From TrEMBL:
Keywords: ATP-binding, Cell inner membrane, Cell membrane, Kinase, Membrane, Nucleotide-binding, Phosphoprotein, Transferase, Transmembrane, Transmembrane helix, Two-component regulatory system
InterPro entries: 2C_sensor_his_kinase (IPR050980), HAMP_dom (IPR003660), HATPase_C_sf (IPR036890), HATPase_dom (IPR003594), His_kinase_dom (IPR005467), HisK_dim/P_dom (IPR003661), HisK_dim/P_sf (IPR036097), Sig_transdc_His_kin-like_C (IPR004358)
Lineage: Bacteria, Pseudomonadati, Pseudomonadota, Betaproteobacteria, Neisseriales
Protein name per Swiss-Prot or TrEMBL: histidine kinase
Highest rank taxon of the organism: Bacteria
């Protein structure tokens, strides 16, 4: 049966609609010839009788056949207003509609599979490849999609190896500089050099961790998100910038290390720029929402989205004492998107900034 199915979208469409048209015409013809009024033919005359002559009295004793008569309103109706004509058109329309519905479902299935595979690839680069099934066009598209996925994996693996080499090559001279820094006799100069080296090491660590986290996503497991938030708030406890947590939530499937890093970045930002924050955990059937409302000055409206770009900082001086490297929010959003969720910022009234982290309740693929 599978060999009889056409191999291309064009052939499938052509055969499908051709069969639909033939079926609609056949059904319409059956209805028309079955229900259409037939002209009554009188019984044959004696001279027209074929075969041996009937016995005497046969024609007189035989009752006439029953006659079928349509109501006068039907027989007198104009051709386009005849009920049988409309019934024929209705049957044709129903057959064509059914054929179109089946065809749409049949032909859209490969595209739906491709769409689902693209969404899965965006969330996890290690998702299984797309099975090359369906018509020729769908199989060719699946093959191209799988090749693209393989190339992306190869490029990221190559970048990971490059990062490992860069990490070793840069950390080694930084370590030597730290040792040589101790030989500087002037205390002020030695302290400034140590601060610069610490800043370089911090920038290198943040950049490598950001790239490494994109290349090697961890597996998911059941995580108590409320306990994680409370634990991080306790670890970051600072009387000058307190973090107050409220609300509870059921456990979700998540990447523990990545989600801890995401929340830690958000809470550190709230302490650094917002002088503390209120953290609200809002649980629902479909998702878990975490709102971090700080007490800082907020952000300009035109920068609420720009701050998620890697290495973007509002403070152009790039002083780590005031702004870090500019990767914290970018890392946090990437982790949220990897979980199928979202991270957004909006200004509160009359002051403050609210970071909203939404994590859907979904099991790992």
């Amino acid at each position: 049966m599978r060999r009889l199915i056409p191999d291309t979208f064009f052939a499938r469409l052509f055969v499908l609609f051709f069969v639909g048209l033939i079926a609609s015409h056949l059904l319409g013809s059956v209805v028309f010839f079955t229900l259409a009024p037939q002209a009554h033919r009188p019984p044959p005359h004696r001279s027209e009788w074929v075969g041996p002559p009937p016995p005497v009295g046969h024609m007189q004793d035989r009752p006439p056949p029953p006659e079928f008569h349509f109501p006068p309103r039907i027989l007198q109706a104009p051709p386009m207003r005849h009920p049988i004509v409309w019934l024929d058109q209705l049957i044709r329309l129903l057959v064509l509609a059914l054929t179109a519905w089946i065809g749409a479902r049949w032909l859209s299935k490969p595209m739906s599979r491709l769409s689902d595979a693209a969404v899965a690839l965006g969330q996890n680069l290690q998702s299984p490849p797309l099975a090359p099934t369906g018509p020729a066009e769908a199989r060719h598209t699946a093959d191209a999609f799988n090749r693209m996925q393989a190339q992306l994996r190869a490029q990221i693996d190559e970048r990971s190896r490059f990062l490992a080499a860069v990490s070793h090559d840069l950390r080694t001279p930084l370590t030597r500089l730290r040792l040589r820094c101790e030989a500087i006799e002037a205390p002020e100069l030695r302290e400034r050099v140590q601060i610069d080296l610490a800043e370089m090491n911090g920038m290198l660590t943040a950049t490598l961790d950001y790239l490494r986290g994109q290349a090697q996503p961890e597996g998911r497991q059941l995580l108590d998100i409320a306990a994680l938030v409370h634990s991080l708030a306790d670890d970051l406890d600072n009387p000058q910038a307190p973090l107050r947590v409220s609300g509870e939530a059921q456990a979700i499937h998540a990447q523990p290390v990545a989600l801890k890093r995401c929340l830690n970045n958000l809470l550190e930002n709230a302490q650094r720029y917002g002088n503390g924050a209120e953290v609200h955990i809002i649980d629902s059937r479909d998702e878990c929402c975490i709102e971090i409302h700080d007490h800082g000055p907020g952000l300009p409206d035109n920068q609420l989205e720009a701050v998620f770009a890697p290495f973007y900082r509002i403070d152009d001086s790039r002083n780590r004492q005031t702004g870090g490297v500019g990767l914290g929010l970018s890392i946090a959003r990437d982790i949220a998107l990897a979980h199928g969720g979202s991270l957004t910022l909006h200004n509160a009234q009359p002051e403050g900034l609210i970071a909203t982290l939404v994590l859907p309740r979904q099991r790992p693929h």
